[in-house]
Amino acid sequence: MSTKRPITFSVVARDGEARAGLLKTRRGIIETPVFMPVGTAGTVKGIRFEELESPDLDARIILGNTYHLWLRPGVETIKACGGLHRFIGWDRALLTDSGGFQVWSLGALRKISEEGTEFRSHVDGSLRFLSPEVSMEVQAALGSDIVMVFDECAPGKATHEEARSSLELTARWAKRSREKFDQLQRDGLDLGSLGITPALPEELSGAQALFGIVQGAAHRDLRQESLERTVEIGFDGYAIGGLSVGEEKSVMWEVVDDVAPLMPADRPRYLMGVGTPEDLIEAVARGVDMFDCVLPTRNGRTGQAFTSRGKLNIKNAQWSEDRRPLDESCRCSVCQRHSRAYLRHLHQSGEMLAGILLTHHNLAFFLDTMRRVRQSIRSGDFPKFREEFIERLNESGE
C-alpha cells in the first residue's frame, strides 16, 4: 500500500504558538500562515487571475464555493470543461468549501434532516438536496486540491443542547463524507488530477486532500469533543468552523485559544471565514495556519481600503484633492501609481475601475501582511511584529 499522501505539511519555525510552515499540494508549495482569496463562483471578484499570480500578489491558493458552482453553472458544465481549474484557467491550488455554511445561511429556506439538507435554489427557486455524498461528488467533479467535509453549522449563540445536536450530526456527516470521498478517489472521479502543470513532488499521491471541520458553537467542552471525534476519523487537515457567525469576538478567541493548540501539530489548521487583518494576526498567535475571508474584495467594491493605519473610506470628501496613495507603506502597483483623489473620483463617478483598484490594493495588503507574519515568525520577532502592527492599525487612516 502506498504511503504517499495528497498533501504534506511541515512546520519550519515557531515563535510561541505561532507557526511558519510549508504546505505541499499537487499544484505547488504554499508557505503558511496563508490568506486565501475567496473565489465564490469561480472568480475572485474584481480581479483577474493574472494579477493574483503577479509578484504584486502571488496568491498560491484560492477558494471556490461548492454550493454556488453546483447551482450555476452546474456540475455537468464544469465536467464538460475538464474540472474547475481548466474551466476558470487557474493552475495553482484550489480549496473548495462543502456548501454546508451557505445552506445554513439560508435560514428558514432550508430543511435539515439526517440525510442532508433540502432547500430552494436562490438562482431559480428549484428544490435541491445537498448531503455529504452529493457534496463529495460535486467537489470531485470540481477537482479542487483541498476538499472540505459537509458539516452543519450551529448559530454562534446556540444553546448547549442545540450545539450538541449539531455536533452529533456534523460527526456523522464527517464519517459519511470520508467514506464517500475515499470511494470517489478509488473510482478515479477526481477531475483535478488532469493537466497538473508543476512536476508532482515525489512524496505526494496526486489525489485530492480532505479536511475535517470542528464545530460546537461557543461551548468549549463541545469544541474539544468535536475535535477528538474529527481526529478519530482522520483527515489531511483540520478546520475550525462556525465562528464569526454572531458570537462576541471575545468568545471566538476563547474557542480558538482552547482548540487550536489541541489540533494535530503535523497537519494544517484552518480558521474558516476569518477575518480582518487584526483577526489574522491574533489567530496566527494562537497557532492557526490558514484563513479565508471575503472582506478585501467585498470592501474594495464598496469603497473601503485596508491600510497599515486602519480602514480608509475612499468616499470621504477629504480625499478629493489628496495626492497621497491609499497607504504610504504599501508597495503594491495601485499605491505606486494612483492617488486617493483619483480613486475617490473613480468611485464617485461609478467607474468599475474603482472597485478593481481597491480590490487589488486590499488583496495586496492582506497577502503582504501574511508574508511579513511568516518572516517575523522565522526570525523570532513575531510578538514585536504583532504589537507594532496592531498599534499602527489603531491609528487613524487619515
Write the layout of secondary structure elements.
Layout (H helix, E strand, L loop, with lengths): L7 E8 L2 E8 L2 E5 L1 E6 L9 H5 L7 E5 H6 L3 H6 L3 H5 L4 E5 L2 H5 L5 E3 L4 E4 L6 E4 L1 H11 L3 E3 L11 H27 L22 E6 L5 H14 L3 E4 L8 H11 L9 E3 L5 H9 L4 E4 L1 H7 L2 E4 L2 E4 L19 H5 L2 H9 L3 H27 L3 H12 L5
Parallel strand pairs: 4-5, 4-14, 5-6, 6-10, 10-11, 11-12, 12-13, 13-14
Antiparallel strand pairs: 1-2, 2-3, 7-8, 8-9, 15-16
- What is the radius of gyration? 21 Å
Number of helices: 15
- Class based on secondary structure composition and strand pairing: alpha/beta
Low-confidence stretches: none
* Name of the top-level CATH class of the largest domain: Alpha Beta
CATH topology of the largest domain: TIM Barrel
Strand ordering within the main sheet: 4-5-6-10-11-12-13-14
Could you give the distance between the termini?
A: 61 Å
What is the approximate shape? globular
| Percent of sequence in beta strands | 15-25%
- Domains, number: 2
Strand segment count: 16
Q: Taking all residues together, what is the mean pLDDT? A: 95
CATH architecture of the largest domain: Alpha-Beta Barrel
